[in-house]
Write a structure and sequence with these properties.
Pfam families: Amino_oxidase. This protein has helices at residues 15-26, 67-76, 112-117, 125-129, 135-140, 145-151, 156-162, 167-181, 191-203, 218-232, 275-284, 286-289, 292-295, 339-342, 369-383, 440-459, 475-494, and strands at 7-11, 30-34, 46-48, 54-56, 61-63, 87-91, 94-99, 119-120, 211-213, 236-238, 245-248, 254-259, 262-265, 268-271, 301-312, 322-329, 332-338, 352-359, 392-406, 425-427. With 501 residues, the chain is α/β, with parallel strands linked by helices. It folds into three domains: 7-46 and 217-300 and 408-459, 3-Layer(bba) Sandwich (FAD/NAD(P)-binding domain), CATH 3.50.50.60; 102-207; 302-406, Polyamine Oxidase, Chain A, domain 2 (Alpha-Beta Complex). A hairpin with a 5-residue loop joins strand 11 (245-248) and strand 12.
């Protein structure tokens, strides 16, 4: 290798792309990070309204298991988060659930703490107990390739029904979790994805559902100083660069990427874009669409999101700063947040500032802002009646078509791993296959570090990034999983033609 630093081009400046760029720049690589939008950050880039008020594409929580992101902000010297917060859940008939701060309560073996400490207001005990048989599926699903293949072709709704979960428990507990966790109703969610998400965020350890929030937009409080540190390390972050193709040499290795009339040469390429963005690149790239693994990405889908921010003319008491809602529309989940309590910018606001985000929001996107705002106020008033009399004095609506990954039944076979058939082209993002076990923003960031480590291993320069593993399963879960796997192995040896994969 010559004396110049190896060149790495990273496509996409969200959690994955920034994570890869930061580590590789610190290792002395010539890093160029390309972002199609006007600001780094992808879906969490913040911006201002014409009146100078902050808005962003939805509010993103940071859960207790986000060990790598919490470690990152410490390394960056940032203090962006609120204290741990309590949350509530509403339906059209009122308050349904209040969640405590689980880490403050005596720790019980999972899932007893979650079961006993969550304060259900209406759901009968007999319905809650109907979830017990589902524990077998949570034990059986160990995030392995075999487990994903066992459960991915089944819908989450079928899974819960087959394991005897009561209709009411499904309707009032599990489906709301799916609507705000996987962004789609249960009949449209992979059972494998549902089990992975529920276990990681709620059931693996008692404190896992505890959450903090950014005290302003993530773009301003985390991504902007993060980009500055990447640039100080020598990395280049270029916005409004939409990648359209990948250049390959005669050996089939990537030599760069194409952005309109610009070509960025590379010794390795890392893609860190969402499903929709990757599909656009594949569609326009003769090099990628000639490979089946990339063509197969066209079988994946994504979900519409709508983020709204409303300013009211008076103070309204909102009991909990973060709230999830179900039952208002059959296939849409939504959340609302008291930004006076969460964001420093609005702490002394004379009125009330509320963020309301809608997932699987396809039916809302055709509506105008003037049609959407009254609908949001109506739903808020159903939860907290004081919103009926308040007046909206300003608002912002952000439409995000095909914005988040849809983990549909059968989608696992089309998801890409970090390594591809192009030996120096690596994948990252929250939809990329990883055995780390994390989800959402943490998963995106981890896969960015994993892709960086693959580039380091190939180019043989620098030290791999340290990736903190998820907290190990509790001993009783480890024992049950070990026993279950032994029984599976025994069954396959005795009845190989009948035992399900």
């Amino acid at each position: 290798m010559d004396e110049r630093s190896p060149r790495i081009v990273i496509v996409g400046a969200g959690w994955a792309g920034l994570g890869a760029a930061h580590h590789l720049a610190k290792q002395g690589y010539d890093v160029t990070l390309l972002e199609a939008g006007a600001y780094p950050g992808g879906l969490v880039a913040g911006w201002k309204t014409p009146g100078g008020r902050s808005i962003e594409a939805g509010i993103h929580g940071f859960w207790y298991p986000y060990r790598n992101i919490f470690s990152l902000v410490d390394q960056l010297g940032l203090k962006p988060f609120t204290p741990w917060t309590r949350s509530s859940q509403y339906s059209p008939v009122g308050l349904e659930v209040e969640s405590p701060i689980f880490q403050d309560l005596p720790r019980l073996p999972t899932p007893l703490g979650t079961f006993l400490y969550t304060q259900f207001k209406r759901l009968p005990l007999r319905d809650r107990l109907s979830a017990l048989p589902l524990l077998y599926a949570l034990i059986d699903f160990d995030n392995s390739d075999a487990a994903w293949r066992r459960y991915d072709s089944v819908t989450a709704r079928e899974l819960f029904k087959d394991f005897g979960v009561s209709a009411r428990l499904y309707r009032e507990s599990f489906e709301p979790m799916l609507l705000v966790g996987l962004f789609a109703p249960g009949e449209q969610c992979s059972a494998a994805a549902a089990l992975g998400m529920l276990y990681y965020f709620i059931l693996a350890h008692q404190p896992d559902f505890d959450v903090v929030w950014c005290r302003g937009t993530v773009g301003e409080m985390i991504f902007r100083p993060w980009v500055q540190q990447i640039e100080q390390a020598g990395g280049k972050v270029l916005t409004q660069r939409r990648v359209s193709d990948v250049r390959l040499d005669s050996r089939g290795q990537a030599t760069g990427v194409v952005c309109g009339d610009e070509i960025f040469d590379a010794d390795a390429v890392i893609f860190a874009v969402g499903v929709t963005g990757m599909q656009k690149i594949v569609s326009g790239s003769p090099m990628l669409r000639n490979r089946r693994e990339f063509r197969d990405l066209m079988n994946l889908s994504a979900i519409d999101v709508m983020a709204t921010r409303l300013w009211f003319d008076r103070k309204i008491e909102i009991p909990r700063p973060s709230n999830a809602c179900f039952g208002f529309q059959a296939t849409t989940g939504w959340t609302f947040f008291d930004l006076n309590a969460l964001h420093d910018e609005f702490r002394d606001e004379p009125g009330t500032v509320v963020e309301a985000d809608f997932y699987h929001a396809n039916q809302f996107l055709p509506l105008s802002d003037t049609e959407i705002v009254p609908l949001v106020q109506r739903d808020l008033a159903t939860c907290i009646p004081a919103f009926h009399e308040a007046k909206v004095i300003d608002s912002g609506v952000v439409r995000l078509p095909r914005a988040v990954t849809h983990f549909a039944p059968g989608s696992y076979r089309y998801l890409l791993p970090a390594e591809t058939s192009i030996s120096n082209l690596f994948m990252s993002g929250d939809w990329v296959v990883t055995r780390h076990g994390s989800w959402s923003q943490e998963k995106a960031y981890v896969t960015g570090l994993e892709a960086a480590n693959l580039a380091i291993a190939q180019l043989r320069r620098g030290t791999p990034a340290t990736i903190l593993p998820v907290e190990p399963d509790e001993p009783h879960i480890q024992t049950m999983r070990s026993l279950n796997q032994s029984l599976r192995n025994w069954g396959q040896s005795i009845l190989p033609n009948f035992w399900l994969p």
